[in-house]
Amino acid sequence: MVQNYMSVSKVLSGVIFGTALLASVATTGTAHAAVCPTVADPQGVKTSYPQQLDLGDFQKQTGQKLALSGNPLFADQVKSGKLPKVDMRVPEEALVSLPYTECGKYGGMLRGMSKALESGTSEILSWRQVNLVRISDDLQTLVPNVAKSWKWNDDFTSLTMSLRKGHKWSDGHPFTADDIVFYINDIIKNKDLHKVVPSVWMVGGKSVDVTKIDTETVRFDFAAPYPGLLHFLATGGSYFAAYAPKHHYMPYLLKYNPKAEEEAKAAGAEGWVQRFGLIWHKWKDAENITAHALSRPTLESHLIEFETNTQRRQYVANPYYFKVDSSGQQLPYIDRQHERFLDQELFVLSILNGEVDVKTQTMALNNFPVLKEGEGKGDYTVNRPSGAYGPYLVFNQTIKDPSLRAVYSDVRFRKAMSLAINRAELNEVLWFGLGKPEQAVPIGVPFVTDADRNYLIAHDPAAAGALLDEMGMKMGSDGVRTGPDGKPFTLLWEYTAQHSSSEFGTLVSSYWKKVGINVTVKEVTTQLMREKAAASTSDINMEWDVPYEPTMISQIDVYIPPYSDIGPLVGVPWRDWVGSKGASGEEPPAWAKRLFELSEVWKTVLPGSKRYMEIGSEMVKINLENLVIIGTMGSLPRPLVVSNKLTNIPKGWNVSHFNYGYDYPYRADQWSFK
Known about the structure:
Elements: H1 8-12, E1 30-31, E2 52-54, H2 55-62, E3 65-66, H3 75-80, H4 86-89, E4 95-97, E5 109-114, H5 122-128, E6 133-135, E7 142-144, E8 147-152, E9 158-163, H6 177-188, E10 202-203, E11 206-207, E12 209-214, E13 217-221, H7 229-234, H8 246-249, H9 260-266, H10 272-279, E14 302-304, E15 312-317, E16 323-325, E17 336-341, H11 347-352, E18 358-359, H12 368-373, H13 375-378, E19 380-383, E20 386-388, E21 394-395, H14 402-408, H15 411-420, H16 423-431, E22 436-437, H17 450-453, H18 461-471, E23 490-495, H19 502-514, E24 518-523, H20 526-534, E25 540-541, H21 549-554, H22 572-579, H23 590-602, H24 610-625, E26 633-634, E27 636-637, E28 640-643, E29 646-647, E30 672-673
Parallel strand pairs: 1-3, 4-16, 5-17, 23-24
Antiparallel strand pairs: 2-4, 6-7, 8-9, 9-13, 10-11, 12-13, 14-15, 15-17, 18-28, 19-28, 20-27, 21-25, 22-26, 29-30
């Protein structure tokens, strides 16, 4: 198949979705299921974007009107009149998705597992999530999704998006430009809901302006160039849909409903703001926790079917989903998705018993041998795509305890702790030698050098000890050092299984103890870890998702303090100081100030340009020289388990990572059971 893959430069120069290029498969009549162009056999169909094209373009190329067919799951509802026929549910400008190998069969339940609500659930969210644009499975090409097309102006300060005519929410209500305008103006820029406009919608010191052009057209205007917005929406921002169902949420906002406060209190909330926070969340997975999710419209491929509990969540296909396959079948093929919540110790056993269809998130590499051995019994295949980097270690320089802050804010201590780690041994003991010792640097960017990757990763306990001596951390006769204040020093390392293993903590703490640092290692919940990180009371934080280039382009916040919103790493008071222009928080050190300054300019530069390279290099240098984030290992494979009963699974599943939306690039809506 001839595919005009859209590079970053072509996307940013404003090339939009579009052109029919070639002759048709047939000349007259209506397409049937026997006609099924796929990625493996496109049957002459050409796409301007990988693996997809608009319905109108498809029909122009084939010379046929594509006959649409719906999932039998909805047949009774259609017969009773509860649901309209499929051609009234699918947009007039539907998106045609070419399956990888075959047009699939309807039915089945896709089974997955997570640790708990809000713990390790991103992968299952990625099975159903959608946003305005998507990143293809080459992990480079931005493609239309909810949006039909887009066009930038010449200086990237204005983005016009076209939506799909006839697109509907899961309740059948029209999805229009009003839902995007509502999201920006009534949620994101609502000072009662967001005291500060989220940084992704702030450029040049001002928040985005959004204008409805017509029902299917909306324009975003920025105070400065913002070429990275689409990368955000397609990768890390894919979890945060840039729209909301206006018709559903209006009654909960005081602006539209004078009784919203009264009704909120009657419902048991403190007020309308708290009530709204319980039913809307930028993290789309969080909206599926309460009973309200049963009535909340969505554009995702599946919607919540039963009220969630602590054991499971279940989703059913969205009857108004906006994609069809190349034979006219409305996607998704799979009827239901089921998510069980299990202790992580039970993950491998559940997979071996054949109880899981797809799993990669939170799967440790040391599980690979037993998973490989059990492939036959569990009727699955396990591979090892890249996607695990780290774990990372961040000493909290803004910890509230002044004696600990004096230690952690001294770069000599951080350098000593890096030099004390035996990364080669970690690699052999924990990861079968399959990783590569590496410092904490962005992945796949042109401005990171081998020297950056190797910065202070050598195992040198003598050099580490010398730095600690220089700090005044004296070694006692018992082999334990004091703090610079002369008092006994103990480092409390609280970790969560979501970001580390007990074996990792045991090994690393043993290296630190050898240079005289007393360490207490303790496992805690992810929720507690995030609370302590946000409150600046944790010694070490670890919740950092290494930025790949699309993430760097679109979410530079992951490379400046506090390096994460969900679980801040270091510098929450610094961020508050910058955001409030000195009215609150704490003034950052000079190096952190410089990172904040550079991040504002970074948002406006064109990826690949000279200025892009200059700023990227300087940010890497600052973070390395201050060793804010201590890296351990790079290029670690992560086990990927896929049931042999599934079809349309891509062969080139090379990366599984949060910053690409886990399984999102691999189009779970066209997975099917054989």
